[in-house]
Amino acid sequence: MSERLTGWEVAAPEAGRRPARLRRSTLRLTTERGSEELRVPVAVGRRLSAADAAPATRSELLALLDECALSCARARIAELLGRRDYTSLEVSQRLREEGYRDSVAGEALAWARECGLVDDARYGAAFARSKVLSGWGRLRVERELERRGVDPGAIAGWPEEFTDGEDERSRALALASRRRLTGRNDYQKVARFLVGRGFSYGVASDVAREVVGSAD
Length: 216
Hints:
Order of helices and strands: EEEHHHHHHHHH
Shape: elongated
């Protein structure tokens, strides 16, 4: 049989130097066996305090807490995506950082995916197209996608429909041509720069030779 509640309250976080997203409310509850405290996201604490339900047992209170947490997590995802697109990994990390339990974050993320709010393939395609246009090489685009939790292989048409070998070389040449040559280790500097922008060593080396050779 679940422990009967003798009282519970939600205490707002104290003002301090911590960023708002890292602050936590405190759920204090008392049963016949004693007292305990749970740290919850501020939004969840507010939703719980405003709930009409009057839980009589500890399990009923925790069930209400989970209900409020899931509702707040979904609202938080919608709020985040109202500003910019996010990957599944980014959403999950953000919710956990803000104090949502793994199970709540996972359930809210599953809902967001099912609704189409979060779509890693859509995000990846838009990200790759934007970065290719800004001069990034294929390898850098792929590294950054993987860091954000997106498998480049899941993006329809990547990389063939986003860039081809000649286009990759043309973009590398355009970037390298704007570099100031000093006459000292120019080949190495240009090649290093291009590799750092995500171009393959073969493309970087070929373009560096052309740029340095044309300056002689």
